[in-house]
Specification:
heterodimer; A: alpha/beta; Rossmann fold; five-stranded mixed sheet; 12 helices; 21% strand; globular; B: five-stranded parallel sheet; two-stranded antiparallel sheet; 10 helices; Transketolase family protein (chain A); Transketolase_C (chain A)
Chain lengths: 310, 275
């Protein structure tokens, strides 16, 4: 069964709005895409549409947080970084303000709109901002839980969301533990670390590999920062090799974060899968994922290569 | 405003100018020009118009202030210290390592600084957020934002201006320190802004003009701005960059230049004259 991450996010905001009256939601004219409009319909008095003005949206959210609100700001992930970098750094991060930044349509998920609308740099940016917690959800259930966790955490949070419909991996009873990776599959030959939509692809690849007699440990790192160092090191010790898969440029995202952890504590061979420092193009989402090597078949291929050569 | 009060503020401004020159000469860094153009605006706000004290910072029922032109931090710090937000001794550590007084205002280190500023244009936008929040909470208080005129070349200023009008932020009072000079030259040379008054009016603001170095003129403008309903207001305060020091007045090189020993002596001699 599949569920759209953005729908889950919109509904979760709405549910939480009932519980927490301090929540206000801002959007920059894309509320029907980000699904923040679901909240806007339910709570028009706590919904602020600033028009096509991301910088002002984020700076206004800073002001709202100063007088006690918990603002959720919404736009496409790539515009959040591109247009919002200045207030995200100098107001939100520097001031350690209680603002939640929801980056919609991350990775290649706004597939047909092309390279300008694909967000393959957001994790690198938010990882480099002090005080930010960075979350990347793998399915609709996690999206819902992450919204709640973000709202309850005092301080700035980046929530990486997707436009895609993805298989439901979690059930409601699974807790969302901030800063803890989830082991979804146990195995001894290789650790596959993934985030976001790539988690389901990694699980798919793991099944194919199992049929080939290769067992893999599959981990979902939903909290990119602070990252679960202990689990990454423990898994590297168990399997001796690590493959990282993310819908992001291989520079600066989860792959880089995993390499940073392992090179300083327990170096093992690591292969980073993501877009190869290139601009992307328009097309069907699944077709794009295949083209840029982010499908199950590509993961299987890289896994086998990594095991054979190391 | 009473004559005694005006005289008191005049004396304070005079003293602040002396202290600023002494401080910036001593540390050989910091921005004198833009600090001297907004001296009257800051003292009038903190010592007459605004309800902000070290004691009511946790109280939601108070006014708010943002120094959007963050480089005027030295004059803000003199004002905050005088108001009792921190010990005046701290001023000597301005811009030095381990100091609570950063080169540009930092909300995390300096008591009384509510919004960190420095990158221009963001202060008015954050001010719109505070003003909107106060309205949503039904709190009848004002948000004062002090901007530079070079600063309004930033695009986000106009994004914020549109939103202030849309949300009818009549609790937002923007004061434009219009000294006509920015880092690289005069505003006319660097990026002419045309009819500033007409621009802000076109964006939905009530614009009130004032002499930014005349306490009475400024005071009347602020009082008028506070009474406006249904729309935000902007006080176009005509000022002089480097005001009070003849060789600094109207000169862009004094945006952020260290003060030499000879210049220091000349400046203090000018300021020896009693007001």
């Amino acid at each position: 069964m599949k569920q759209s991450i953005r729908d889950a996010y919109g509904n979760a905001l709405c549910e939480l709005g009932e519980e927490m009256k301090q929540i206000v939601v801002l959007d920059a004219d894309v509320s029907s895409s980000t699904k923040s409009g679901v909240f806007g319909k339910q709570y028009p008095e706590r919904f602020i549409n600033v028009g096509v003005a991301e910088n002002n949206m984020i700076s206004m959210a800073a002001g709202l947080s100063i007088v006690g609100y918990i603002p959720f700001v919404n736009t496409f992930a790539t515009f959040m970084v591109g247009r919002g970098a200045d207030p995200l750094k100098s107001l939100i991060a520097y001031g350690k303000l209680n603002v939640k930044v929801a980056g919609a349509y991350a990775g290649l998920s706004d597939s047909y709109d092309g390279a300008t609308h694909h967000a393959l740099e957001d994790l690198a940016f938010f990882r480099s901002l002090p005080n930010f917690t960075v979350i990347s959800v793998a399915d609709g259930v996690q999206a819902r839980k992450a919204v709640k966790v973000a709202a309850q955490l005092e301080g700035p949070v980046y929530l990486r969301l997707s436009r895609a419909e993805v298989p439901i991996l979690y059930d409601e009873s699974t807790p969302f533990e901030l800063g803890k990776g989830d082991v979804l599959e146990e195995g001894k030959d290789l650790t596959i670390i993934a985030t976001g939509v790539m988690v389901s692809k990694a699980l798919e690849a793991s099944q194919i590999l199992k049929n080939e007699g290769i067992t893999t440990k599959v981990i979902n790192i939903h909290t990119i920062k602070p990252i679960d160092q202990a689990l990454i090191v423990e898994s590297a010790k168990q399997t001796g090799r690590v493959l990282v898969v993310e819908e992001h440029n291989i520079n600066g995202g989860l792959g880089s974060a995993v390499c940073e952890v392992l090179s300083e504590t327990y170096p093992v061979p690591v292969k980073r899968m993501g877009t190869q420092d290139c601009f992307t193009e328009s097309g069907d989402y699944e077709a794009l994922l295949c083209k840029y090597g982010l499908d199950a078949t590509s993961i299987v291929h890289e896994a086998i290569t990594l095991i054979r050569t190391n | 405003m009473e004559v005694a009060k005006v005289d008191h503020l005049k004396q304070m401004n005079h003293r602040f100018r002396q202290e600023l020159i002494e401080l910036l000469h001593k540390i050989q860094t910091g921005h004198p020009g833009g600090s001297l153009s907004c001296t009257e605006i800051l003292t009038l706000l903190y010592f007459d118009k605004m309800d902000i004290t070290p004691l009511n910072l946790q109280n939601p029922e108070r006014d708010h202030f943002i120094l959007s032109k963050g480089h005027a931090a030295p004059m803000l710090y003199l004002t905050l210290a005088e108001k009792g937000f921190f010990d005046k001794e701290e001023l000597q550590n301005l811009r030095q390592i381990n100091s609570m007084l950063q080169g540009h205002p930092c909300s995390k280190t300096t008591p009384g600084v509510e919004v960190s500023t420095g990158p221009l244009g963001l202060g008015i936008s954050a001010g719109c957020g505070i003003a909107k929040g106060l309205k949503m909470q039904g709190i009848d208080r004002h948000v004062y934002v002090l901007m530079g005129d070079g600063e309004i070349q930033e695009g986000v200023v106009w994004e914020a201006a549109m939103s202030a009008a849309k949300f009818k932020l009549d609790n937002l009072v923007v004061i434009l320190d219009a000294n006509g000079v920015q880092l690289d030259g005069t505003t006319e040379e660097v990026m002419p802004m045309g009819d500033i008054k007409a621009k802000w009016e076109a964006f939905g603001f009530r614009v009130i003009e004032a002499n930014g170095h005349d306490i009475t003129s400024l005071s009347e403008a602020i009082d008028e701005a506070k009474e406006i309903e249904g729309k935000p207001s902007l006080i176009l305060a005509h000022t002089v960059k480097g005001k009070g020091i003849s060789f600094m007045e109207g000169k862009n090189i004094w945006h952020g230049k260290p003060i030499s020993d000879a210049e220091y002596v000349t400046a203090l001699k000018e300021l020896e004259v009693e007001v």
